[in-house]
Amino acid sequence: MQNAGTDADKRPFTTHRVGARNDLIFIDFDGTISVKDTGIAVIDALDLDEAWEVEHQWRRGEIDSMECLRRQWGMVDLPPAAIYRMIDSFELDEGFNELAEAAIQIGAGLVVVSDGLDFYVDRMLGRLGWETCPGDTVLQRPRRCIPRYANHAQVTDHGVKITFPHRSDDCEQCGNCKTAHLMRLRPHFSRTIYLGDGHSDLCAARFADVVFAKDALAEDFTRAGRDFVRFDRLAEVNGVLLAPYKA
Ligand SMILES: [Mg+2]
Ligand SMILES: [Zn+2]
Q1: Cys bridge to 178: 22, 29, 113, 139, which one at CB 3.0-4.6 A?
Q2: CA dist 24 to 4, 138, 172, Å?
């Protein structure tokens, strides 16, 4: 990324999908930075069949994500050290590092938006070598931390306690409403770019200028006839978004 310094922002765009100074990049965490959705990985690791029933209720829209998270994590009966050990075993997409470095070099804002839990987002991004900071830090540039919005959780000897500091009165589905963040931050940037994998990304992604999607989000966008770039690993996103900076 040595060439992505100050003169990079004077380069003409080769396509509208190339990242630029003053872009705002929204990136989902579970299934996008973590290879597998962390909640599902926990359910699978612990064989929590009842948690799958809760998951399906949420996917059918019968319960909101707050109830879903509280009930599922309420079934995790492990001491903190065992929870951390499990989280540390989950695979991450290391392509995130190049993307995050490039965002800093280019002068783009990058913010992680997760309707999962901050304790594992922070811990896993820490494993990639990053400190996290509150989401609104994305408005300050330059910065060396990863701004993130997630639901708040405390891992205690008596279970994982969850609170929802970002819940929005305008949204009945999310604990941490990605759309509310996007709408609030958007005026501070010239363009928004969204990267995600799930149904819970659909609402916010519809308001983005450029969308990179995988899995359920890619299917949703295909069904809706909307334009997007399909990806499986973040290296593919970097290949498009950072193409002129990689020469
Ligand atoms: Mg996801
Ligand atoms: Zn929402």
Answers
A1: 113
A2: 17, 9, 25
At 15 the pLDDT is 54
User: Which one of the ligands is nearest to 65 CA?
Assistant: 2
How far does residue 72's CA lie from ligand 1's centre (Å)? 16
Residues 124 and 203 in one domain: yes
Q: Tell me the per-residue pLDDT of 227-236, one tens digit each, with 9 for 90 and over.
A: 999 999 999 9
- Ion ligand 1 — residues with CB under 5 Å? 28, 30-31, 197-198
Q: What is the CATH number of the domain that holds 211?
A: 3.40.50.1000
- Which residues constitute the domain of residue 186? 2-9+16-36+93-152+166-245
Whether residue 177 is found in the same domain as residue 80: no
CA–CA dist 143, 89 (Å, integer): 29
pLDDT tens-digit series, residues 7-44: 444 444 445 888 888 999 999 999 999 999 999 999 99
pTM over 0.85: yes
Query: Are 127 and 209 in the same domain?
Result: yes
- My answer on whether 75 and 123 are in the same domain is no
